[in-house]
Amino acid sequence: MMGPWTGAKVVVPTKFIVGELDLTLKLPGAEAYINNGGFKKDVPLLEDIVVLKGVGHFLNEEKPEEVTKQIHDFFNQF
């Protein structure tokens, strides 16, 4: 299914926000990919990684004010 996108890079300024309790973060190899350069290689304009403490997968429902602030601050830098 992803064949046409294999090797493609995300080439826009990016901020990645994830909850520390998100099960997708706990998939084998996910944290290493994010923290050890693999993510930055595929997303070369990655500017920031934010791990929200005590939050699971539904960030915008669990911490709406914090997520809004993170997004607002990111957009305001441009």
Verbal overview:
Strands 1-2 form a two-stranded parallel sheet. The model has no long low-confidence stretch (mean pLDDT 94). It is of the alpha+beta class. The chain starts with 13 loop residues before the first strand and ends with a helix. It has four helices and two strands, in the order βααβαα. It is globular, with a radius of gyration of 14 Å. Helix content is 36%, strand content 17%. Belongs to the AB hydrolase superfamily. Epoxide hydrolase family. Keywords: Hydrolase. One of its GO terms (molecular function) is hydrolase activity. This is Epoxide hydrolase. It comes from Linum tenue.
For the biggest sheet, the summary is: 2 strands, parallel
Q: Roughly what is the average pLDDT, rounded to an integer?
A: 94
- Low-confidence spans: pLDDT under 50, at least 5 residues? none
N-to-C series of helices and strands: EHHEHH
Number of helices: 4
Morphology: globular
Q: What is the helix content?
A: 25-40%
Question: Structural class from helices and strands?
Answer: alpha+beta
Terminus-to-terminus distance: 34 Å
Strand ordering within the main sheet: 1-2
- Counted beta strands: 2
Query: What gyration radius follows from the Cα positions, in whole Å?
Result: 14 Å
How much of the residues is beta strand, in percent? 15-25%
Family: Belongs to the AB hydrolase superfamily. Epoxide hydrolase family.
Protein name: Epoxide hydrolase
Keywords: Hydrolase
Organism: Linum tenue
